[in-house]
Amino acid sequence: MAARAMWKGRIRFGDVDVPVKLYSAIKSTGGVHFRLLHEKDLEPVKQQMVNPETGKVVEYENVRRAFPTDDGVLVMLDEDELAELEPEGSRDIEITRFVDPEVITHQWYDVPTSSARTTVRRNTSHSRKRCGSRRRKASRAG
User: What is the rounded distance in angstroms from the CA atom of residue 76 to the CA atom of residue 131?
Assistant: First the structure.
């Protein structure tokens, strides 16, 4: 069975669009999934959120999200603010600059991937300009 792309999109370098497909660089074996069991009676256990101060279980409806800043302050975010943080849906990646690989920490590498170019397309307005200039040069030469 042929490899299936996990993402399809375009990488843009100025006026050049390069359609790409992203593939997993490792083969998924389906993985082994374990259930956590209580040793005494071998019953499955549940994971719960517990308030460390009181030891009481906190229901999901009462959990809020916060972002810790470098100086230790917790910034609370509500559902509307989290929704605003979501990027717009797009399959385009625009390359604006390059950085040295040493600058990128390993925390950003979740899954090894590889990419493959499909076909090269140029931005249509740019392509028309180039084709037009070629025609003018050809007509002058003849």
Answer: 54
For 49-74, write each residue's pLDDT tens digit. 999 999 999 998 999 888 899 999 99
| Beta-carbon contacts of residue 20 (< 8 Å; ≥ 6 apart) | 8, 9, 10, 11, 115, 116, 117, 118
3-state SS string for the chain:
CCCCCCEEEEEEECCEEEEEEEEECCCCCCCCCCCCECCCCCCECCCCCECCCCCCECCHHHCCEEEECCCCCEEEECHHHHHHHCCCCCCEEECCCCCCHHHCCHHHCCCCEEEEECCCEECHHHHHHHHHHHHHHHHHHC
122, with CB counted inside 10 A (0-12, 13-18, 19+), is middle
Q: How many CB atoms lie within 10 A of CB 9?
A: 17
**pTM beyond 0.90:** no
